[in-house]
Design a protein that fits this description.
- The protein is of the alpha/beta class.
- Among the domains are: 221 residues, HUPs (Rossmann fold), CATH 3.40.50.620; 50 residues.
- The protein is built from 22 helices and 11 strands.
- The protein has a 7-stranded mixed beta sheet. It has a two-stranded antiparallel sheet with strand order 1-4.
- Helix 12 crosses helix 14.
- The relative contact order is 0.14.
- Bound molecules: tryptophan.
- Tryptophan binds next to strand 7 and strand 10.
- Belongs to the class-I aminoacyl-tRNA synthetase family.
Length: 565
C-alpha cells in the first residue's frame, strides 16, 4: 500500500459489520466532496502529529524511522498489517526503527538462519544473493520445502505482485522485483506477477474518488518497469487483475471465497472501519475490501493459470465452445508448489491461503514465503518517503543528475557535524542512508566491509560515502532505464499473454527414490488437529499420488521442451 492510504492515529467507530444509519438523509455530491476533503485534512494533521505515515511496504516504500540505540519506551507500538505499517513512537514523539525480530515472533515466521543460508547455497550451487546475505530478506515460511522441491527437480513457481498506485516506481518498489528476478535466474522456474489494479482502486481509488481506469494505466506502465528489471519472457507472466480475471482463476476465487469468513478476512487485514469510500460519509469497510483478499490468495495456486504449466491440450475454458477445454482445475497442476517473495506486511494475506488451501477441491500445498524488510526512507530517521513527494524518493525515472542531487541533498547522514569531529569520532553507518542503500546495491562484500570500517573510523568522509552510493544507484537506475526503453507495447503484450512457460528447473536433481525417502522423513504438510489418523494416511497417499502425477507432468514438459529445441 502507499503512504496515505488511511488514518494512522485514533480510531473511527467500527461500522464494518454493517451498521447503516438510516436516520441521515442521503448525502449530496457536495456533502461527499466536503466530507472527503475533511477526511483528507484530518489524515494530514494526524499523520503530521505522529510524523509518520503508513507506508507502502509490499512495494517497499520505506518507513520513517529513527534508529535509536538503547531502550526507548514506546508511547505507541509498531504496527504492521497489509494496510497499515507504522513504526513505534517513543515518549518524545520520535519514530523508532522497526523491531523486525519482534515482528517475526509476532507473525510466528521462521528466521532465515545460517544453516538455511548454507543449504540454499548448497542446493542451488550458486552464491547467495546479497539481499539474503545482508539480511534484507530475513524471514520465511517453508523455504526449506521449496529447496527440497528444487533438489528433487520438481516443478514449482514463483509468485509476486505490485499494487499499481502511481506511474513510476521508485527504488523501494524495485527491490522485491530485483530479488524475484534473481530467484528466477537461480531456480529457472516460472514467475507470475500480479498487478492489483483492483486492489488499489478498492482500497485507495474509491476513497479518493478516482477512476478505476487510472489504475489500469498504472498497471501497464508498472508492468513495463517490471519487465525492465530483466525478467525472462520465456518464463514470466504478468497480468492486470482487471484484465485477466476469468476462467480458472475466477473459479478458484469463487471456491476460495466460500472458505473464508468476513471475520477471518477482517482479522487478517486489520479492518476496523476506518476506511472511507467517497460514496459513503460513514467510515466503512466495503464488501470489495472484504472480497479482495481471496483474489490475492488464489494467485498462489498454479491451478489459477493452467495454461502456464503446459497442459498441452488445455485452452481457457469456454464451456459454450466444443473444443478441448477442461472445466475444472487439474489436481496435478493445483499441486505445483509456490514461493512468494514479498515484504513482511503481506504475510497476513498468505496466512489466509496457507490456512485454507488444503480445503480446495483440487488442493494446493501451502505456499512458501520469503519476507523482506522495508527500505529505509531517503530522509532516514524522522523522514518519510512518498511517491507524491519527489524529494523523498529516488524514482526509477530519475536522471543521473537528479540521483546525485537527491543523495547529496536529502540522504540522511550518519556523519559528524564537522570534518574535524568526523575524523576524530567517526561516523555511524547504521543510521546512514547512503550506506544503507549501498548494502542493497554494492555486490562486493569486502568493499562494503571496508567502507563500513573506514566510515566508522572517520577516514571515509560523508561526501565520499555519498559519492560511492550515487555511483551504484546511477549504475542500477541507468541500466534499468536502458531496458525500460526497450519495453515497448509489443513486448508488454507478450509478457501479458497467458502461454506455456519454458523452464528447466534444476539441471542436476537428486534421484527420485532418495527424494521420496526424504519426503517421508521430513516434508509432509501439517494437518489440522481434527483430522484422524486414517484421514492423514489417506491424505499422505493422495499427496504421493499428486507428486507422482507432478513428476510425470514435469517429465512430459521437459520431453516436449527438448523435442521443440
Ligand atoms: N498487495 C500488494 C500491494 O499492495 C500487491 C501484491 C499482490 C503482492 N500479490 C502480491 C505483493 C504478492 C507481494 C506478493 O502492493
Amino acid at each position: 500500500m502507499e503512504p496515505g492510504d488511511g488514518v494512522q492515529c485514533g480510531k473511527a467507530p467500527d461500522t464494518s459489520a454493517g451498521s447503516l444509519n438510516f436516520q441521515h438523509p442521503p448525502p449530496t455530491q457536495k456533502d461527499r466532496r466536503d466530507f472527503s476533503q475533511a477526511v483528507e485534512v484530518v489524515r494530514v494533521v494526524l499523520s503530521d502529529m505522529a510524523s509518520v505515515e503508513h507506508l507502502s511496504t509490499s512495494s517497499g516504500a520505506p518507513p520513517a524511522v529513527e534508529q535509536t540505540t538503547g531502550a526507548a519506551t514506546a508511547a505507541r507500538e509498531q504496527h504492521v498489517d497489509p494496510l497499515n505499517v507504522s513504526g513505534a513512537i517513543d515518549e518524545q514523539g520520535n519514530v523508532l526503527a522497526f523491531d523486525y525480530e519482534a515482528l517475526r515472533q509476532k507473525f510466528d515466521t521462521a528466521l532465515i538462519d545460517e544453516s538455511l543460508r548454507q543449504r540454499f547455497e548448497r542446493v542451488t550451487g550458486k552464491k547467495l544473493h546479497r539481499l539474503i546475505r545482508r539480511g534484507h530478506f530475513f524471514s520465511h515460511r517453508d523455504l526449506d520445502k521449496i529447496l527440497d522441491c528444487y533438489e528433487r527437480g520438481d516443478t514449482f513457481f514463483i509468485y509476486t505482485g505490485r499494487g499499481p498506485s502511481s506511474d513510476s516506481m521508485h527504488l523501494g518498489h524495485a527491490i522485491p522485483f530485483l530479488f524475484t528476478k534473481e530467484l528466477q535466474d537461480i531456480f529457472d522456474v516460472p514467475v507470475v506477477i500480479m498487478l492489483t489494479d483492483d486492489e488499489k482502486f478498492q482500497f485507495r481509488g474509491a476513497k479518493e474518488g478516482r477512476d478505476l481506469g487510472e489504475f489500469l494505466d498504472y498497471a501497464y506502465s508498472n508492468a513495463k518497469d517490471i519487465i525492465a528489471m530483466g525478467f525472462d519472457l520465456k518464463k514470466t507472466f504478468i497480468y492486470s487483475d482487471v484484465e485477466f480475471f476469468g476462467g480458472h482463476y475466477m473459479q478458484n476465487v469463487t471456491e476460495f471465497e466460500t472458505l473464508l469468513t468476513n471475520n477471518q478476512v477482517r482479522g487478517a487485514m486489520g479492518f476496523d472501519g476506518r476506511y472511507v469510500n467517497i460514496l459513503s460519509p460513514e467510515p466503512a469497510t466495503s464488501i470489495g475490501m472484504n472480497s479482495y483478499p481471496a483474489k490475492q490468495c488464489v494467485a498462489a495456486f498454479a491451478s489459477s493459470y493452467p495454461e502456464l504449466f503446459g497442459a498441452p491440450d488445455f485452452c481457457r475454458p469456454r464451456p459454450r465452445s466444443k473444443g478441448n477445454f477442461e472445466k475444472r482445475p487439474r489436481k496435478e497442476i493445483a499441486a505445483i508448489p509456490c514461493l512468494i517473495p514479498c515484504a513482511i506486511d503481506q504475510d497476513p494475506y498468505f496466512r489466509l491461503v496457507r490456512d485454507n488451501c488444503h480445503r480446495m477441491k483440487a488442493p494446493s500445498p501451502k505456499p512458501a514465503l520469503i519476507h523482506a524488510k522495508f527500505l529505509t526512507a531517503l530522509q532516514g530517521p524522522g523522514g518519510k518517503m512518498s511517491a507524491s513527494d519527489p524529494t523523498s524518493a529516488i524514482f526509477m525515472s530519475d536522471t543521473q543528475k537528479q540521483i546525485e542531487k537527491k543523495i547529496n541533498k536529502y540522504a540522511f547522514s550518519g556523519g559528524r557535524a564537522t570534518k574535524e569531529e568526523h575524523e576524530k569520532y567517526g561516523g555511524n553507518p547504521d543510521v546512514d542512508v547512503a550506506y544503507d542503500y549501498l548494502t542493497y546495491f554494492l555486490e562486493d562484500d569486502e568493499e562494503l566491509a571496508q567502507i563500513r570500517e573506514s566510515y566508522k573510523a572517520g577516514t571515509l568522509s560523508t561526501g565520499n560515502l555519498k559519492k560511492k552510493c550515487i555511483a551504484e544507484l546511477q549504475k542500477f537506475v541507468g541500466g534499468f532505464q536502458e531496458r525500460r526503453n526497450e519495453a515497448t507495447d509489443d513486448v508488454l503484450d507478450k509478457f501479458m499473454t497467458p502461454r506455456k512457460m519454458e523452464y528447466a528447473g534444476n539441471p542436476h536433481p537428486i534421484k527420485v527414490e532418495e527424494a521420496v525417502v526424504q519426503q517421508n522423513g521430513e516434508t509432509t504438510e501439517e494437518k489440522p488437529d481434527r483430522n484422524g489418523k486414517r484421514e492423514r494416511k489417506l491424505e499422505k497417499l493422495e499427496q504421493k499420488k499428486r507428486e507422482k502425477e507432478l513428476e510425470k507432468l514435469a517429465l512430459r514438459n521437459r520431453d516436449e521442451k527438448s523435442g521443440e529445441s
